[in-house]
Amino acid sequence: MRRVKAFLVALLLFAGTVLGCHFYIGNCVAVNNPQFSMWSEEEKGKSLAALTQNMNEACIPVFGSSEFQHGADTAYHPAQVFAGNRFNPMLIGAGYYQCLSHAVTLAAIEDSMTMRKAVLIVSPQWFRKTGVVDQAYTSRFSETLYAGMLENEKLSEETRSYISERTHKLIGSVDQKTLDHVDLHEKVLWKKEGNVLENLQETIWENFLYEKELFSISTKVTAAGIEKGDGLVSEDIAPDWEALIEQAEAAGEEENQNEFFMDTASYKLIQPYLDEKKDKDKDAVNGYQNSPEYDDLRCFLQVCQELDITPMLVILPVNGYYYDFTGFPKTAREGYYKKVLGVAAEYGAQVADFSGEEYTKYFFKDRVHIGKKGWVMVCESLYQFYQED
Questions:
Q1: What is the reported pTM?
Q2: Whose CA is closest to 126, among 90, 145, 101?
Q3: Is 180 exposed, middle or buried (CB count within 10 Å of its CB: 0-12, 13-18, 19+)?
């Protein structure tokens, strides 16, 4: 009897804690606030609830990686360019996010999307020989998003099988516990083969993760000063792109006076190591052209196709001045751009192709991340895509 009472007391305390956290989270997590959409925070990309609660009729998910964390405090970043604009791109990504993670996320949030468009900002560094690294994929993995993907019955068996096989291969060598959870999700939500106990276990675990992710992000949202919003602004006024370009060029002329035309702070970081970087990549004749990332990119576009979402790929270049310095063959870079364009053509995806901007001054912040002028040009492509019928 004592054990039963102790169990009941513990259960009540647990339930009270969960309910308390639930109501606390409900008051903290930003809802209907465009500021949240353009907030560049890694944890945001892991929370199914936080993402879906902030989707609206003027929101397009924009998937990318570490570029979102570069230049966020400048006038050229989407968070500044689109502040006060009706269009509010939902920036999803941080370092180590790549095509496969984004395919999972898109499938999970699709049902909450009013605008049937999605953008993927493609970075050359994703397409190394390894593709996404197992530890990187595991560190960005979200069980709630994976479960949401599995529950999306619009996805074909082939697509879910591809995602499952890649996930097992990548996570299996890093985190067996998470892989066990993946197996349970697949057995119950996809294969529909769970017994009564497994179905109950899945329900409890999903609800726990849902609240845990929301609680985790609520603390960051509060610290960032992002509150519940009043909804979208009614006016849709295009930014003055010409003025922004002129501003970016003027700022570049003032700050980026080095042989690579990158930000001064970024240049100072690499300056002590330049002698050892000279011609180090001259043998990379097939650089970025042979990678499993191409099939992951196809998977992302296949998800778009199956879910009736119009995709746009933003093809980022590399800093041509720096890559020439390291000897990375221009023919290899051109081969990579051509291959990504070929994959886009396979699926009829729209493309914002910036591969011709390798030598555009002030386009880059550093060796690969876009900076002042680069962000303005990318933002304009996002806005044009949003405006299309």
A1: 0.91
A2: 101
A3: exposed
